[in-house]
Design brief:
single chain, 514 residues, alpha/beta, 2-enoyl-CoA Hydratase, Chain A, domain 1, 8-stranded mixed beta sheet, binds hexanoyl-coenzyme A
C-alpha cells in the first residue's frame, strides 16, 4: 500500500474512532444539553491546539459480554494542548462509550496523561462524565481508581489540578475530583455522589432525585465540593481559561505578570466601608477598589459566604485575597468558612501567590451547633494554614478585629509580614458591649442607674481599646493608613516582599487538623 493510501486509511480510522459511541449515543448526550468529549476539549483549548494520544487503545476485558466489544478509545480522550498559548494536559471521559465507565485501559490512559502533566510540570484538567467503575471489569476498574488517586496526591501542590464534572461522577470516582484543587460544575449537568438514588431507595427507602442529591447547586452551596458554578458548559470552559490565566502553572513559577492597570473608578475605597461597625457592606467592593481593573476571580462564591476568597492582580502580579464578608453573618468565622479559607491559603502558599487578608469580623460564631460541628478543629485549620505559609502575607484591618478572629486573620503573631489598619479599626479581645458586661458586671449591677453605668463603661472600653493605636503602640500593626492609601501600601509591601525567604523547621510533613 502506498504511503498516501496508508495516510488515507489512518484518517478513516481516526474519523471512526473520534465518533465515540456513535450517532445514537451522541444524540442522547446532546439531548441532555451536554457536549461530546472532543467538543469539550475544543471549547477549553486554543483553537487547533489539541494533540490526542492513545486514540487506538483497546480494552482486553472478556467477561460479561465484553469480549470483542468495540469501545473507541476505551471511553476517554487524552492529550495536550494550549490555553492562551500555555501548554496543559487534559482528559475527557466519553459518556457515549459504555457510559464513560472506567476500565483498566481507560484508567491507564488517564494515569498516562497525569504522569505527563506532572513530569512536564503543566496543569491538568480532567473532564468527568462517567458511570463510574466499569462493572464488567471488576477489580481492574477499582485498581484504576487507586492509581489515579495516588497520582492526584503526588501532583498536589506541584501542578494545578482542575476537575470538571459534566455528567455523572458516581461512587469512588468522586474522590479524584475531591483530591484536586478546583472543581467546576454546571447547572443541570453535574451529578456527584457516593451512593446514588437507587441505592438510597433500596437501603433507606428514601426517594431523592440525582439533582437534589448531588447536583451543581448542592455542591456549590452546601457541601463545598465545588469551587466554580456555571449555567452552561461554554461558560464553565470560559471560567477555567480565566482561572488558568491568573494562577502559576506549576509550583516553581509565579503567575504570568499582566500589564498593570488602575482599579475602575466606580469602586471608591473611601466610601466602601461604613464607619458604624454594625452596618454591613460587600467586602468585594474593597477588593475591587484595590485590584487592577477591579478584576477578581472569586473561588467558592456560593459556599460559606461569610468569607470571600479569590485571585486578583495588583500592579500586574497575582495575589490571593482572603476577606471577611460583613454581608453574611457579620463576617464571622465558622466551620465552613475556616475550611474554605484554609484550603485557599494552602493553594496560594504552594503556588507562590502572596496573600492579602482583609479583616473585619466580630470573631468566631458562637453556639452549640458550631461547637458540636467541630469549630475548634475546623478553625484550627486556618491558624495552621496561615502559620505554615511562607509566601508574602499582608493584612489590612478595615474595621473590627475581635478575639480569636484577630489572631486567625493573619495577625502579626502568625507571622504576617505587614499589618496595616484603618483609623476606625477596633482591635480588642471582644466587642465593647460584651467586654463591659463582663469586667464591670458587679459595678453595673450595684449602680443606682445600671443602664447609664453600662453605657459609661462601654464608652470607656471603646475609648481605650476600640481603635488601632493600642496594637500599633506594640508594633502589632505596622502602620495606620487612610483607606485611600490601601492599594499603594499593599502594592509597595508586595514589591518589598517579592524576594521573601522564610524557612520552617525541617520535617517530613506537619499534621494539620484535617
Ligand atoms: C459499565 C456502564 C456503567 C458502569 C453506565 N454504563 N455505567 N457500563 N459500568 N459503571 C453503561 C450502561 O450500561 C449503558 O450501556 C451506557 O453506559 C449508558 O448508561 P445509561 O444507564 O443508559 O445512561 P443513563 O440513563 O444516563 O444513566 C447514567 C447512570 C447509570 C446514572 C450513570 O448508567 C448508572 O447508574 N450507572 C451505574 C453507576 C454505578 O453504580 N457505578 C459504579 C459505582 S461504584 P449501553 O450499552 O446500554 O449503552 C464505583 C466504585 C469505584 O465507581 C471505587 C473507587 C474507589
Amino acid at each position: 500500500m502506498a504511503l498516501d493510501d496508508k495516510i488515507l486509511e489512518l484518517e478513516e480510522k481516526k474519523a471512526r474512532l473520534s465518533h465515540g459511541g456513535g450517532e445514537k449515543a451522541i444524540e442522547k448526550q446532546k439531548a441532555l444539553g451536554k457536549m461530546t468529549a472532543r467538543e469539550r476539549i475544543d471549547a477549553l483549548l486554543d483553537e487547533g491546539s489539541f494533540h490526542e494520544y492513545d486514540m487506538f487503545v483497546e480494552h482486553d476485558a472478556r467477561e460479561f459480554g465484553m469480549q470483542g466489544k468495540v469501545l473507541p478509545g476505551d471511553g476517554v480522550v487524552i492529550g495536550t494542548g494550549t490555553v492562551a498559548g500555555n501548554p496543559i494536559a487534559v482528559f475527557a471521559q466519553d459518556f457515549t462509550v459504555a457510559g464513560g465507565s472506567l476500565g483498566l485501559m481507560h484508567a491507564r490512559k488517564i494515569t498516562k496523561i497525569m504522569d505527563y502533566a506532572l513530569n512536564m510540570r503543566i496543569p491538568l484538567v480532567g473532564i468527568n462524565d462517567s458511570g463510574g467503575a466499569r462493572i464488567q471489569e471488576g477489580v481492574n476498574a477499582l485498581a484504576g481508581y487507586g492509581e489515579i488517586f495516588f497520582r492526584n496526591t503526588m501532583a498536589s501542590g506541584v501542578i494545578p489540578q482542575i476537575s470538571v464534572i459534566l455528567g455523572p461522577c458516581a461512587g469512588g470516582a468522586v474522590y479524584s475530583p475531591a483530591l484536586t484543587d478546583f472543581v467546576f460544575v454546571v447547572e443541570n449537568v453535574s451529578k456527584m455522589f457516593i451512593t446514588g438514588p437507587e441505592v438510597i431507595k433500596t437501603v433507606l427507602g428514601e426517594e431523592i432525585s440525582m439533582e437534589e442529591l448531588g447536583g451543581a447547586r448542592v455542591h456549590s452551596e452546601l457541601t463545598g465540593n465545588a469551587h466554580f458554578y456555571a449555567s452552561s458548559e461554554a461558560e464553565c470552559f470560559g471560567q477555567i481559561r480565566k482561572l488558568l490565566s491568573v494562577i502559576p502553572h506549576n509550583n516553581t513559577e509565579k503567575a504570568a505578570k499582566a500589564v498593570p492597570k488602575a482599579p475602575q473608578q466606580k469602586y471608591d475605597i473611601s466610601k466602601a466601608v461604613p464607619v458604624d461597625p454594625s452596618v454591613p457592606y460587600d467586602v468585594r467592593d474593597v477588593i475591587r477598589a484595590i485590584t487592577d481593573e477591579s478584576d477578581f476571580v472569586e473561588v467558592m462564591e456560593l459556599f460559606a459566604g461569610n468569607i470571600v476568597v479569590g485571585f486578583g492582580r495588583i500592579e500586574g502580579e497575582t495575589v490571593g485575597f482572603v476577606a471577611n464578608q460583613p454581608l453574611v453573618l457579620a463576617g464571622v468565622l465558622d466551620c465552613d468558612s475556616s475550611d474554605k479559607a484554609a484550603r485557599f491559603i494552602r493553594f496560594c502558599d504552594a503556588f507562590n501567590i502572596p496573600i492579602v487578608t482583609l479583616e473585619d469580623l466580630p470573631g468566631y460564631l458562637p453556639g452549640i451547633d458550631q461547637e458540636h460541628a467541630g469549630v475548634i478543629r475546623h478553625g484550627a485549620k486556618m491558624l495552621y494554614a496561615y502559620s505554615e505559609a511562607t509566601v508574602p502575607k499582608i493584612t489590612v484591618i478595615l474595621r473590627k478585629a475581635y478575639g480569636g478572629g484577630y489572631i486567625a486573620m493573619n495577625s502579626r503573631h502568625l507571622q504576617a509580614d505587614f499589618v496595616f489598619a484603618w483609623p476606625n479599626a477596633e482591635i480588642a479581645v471582644m466587642g465593647p458591649e460584651g467586654a463591659a458586661n463582663i469586667i464591670f458586671r458587679k459595678e453595673i449591677k450595684e449602680a443606682e442607674d445600671p443602664a447609664a453605668m453600662r453605657q459609661a463603661r462601654i464608652q470607656e472600653y471603646k475609648d481605650k481599646f476600640a481603635n488601632p493605636y493600642v496594637a500599633a503602640a506594640k508594633g502589632y500593626v505596622d502602620a495606620v493608613i487612610a483607606p485611600a492609601d490601601t492599594r499603594g501600601y499593599v502594592a509597595h509591601a508586595l514589591k518589598v516582599a517579592a524576594g521573601k525567604i522564610a524557612s520552617r523547621p525541617a520535617k517530613k510533613h506537619g499534621i494539620p487538623p484535617f
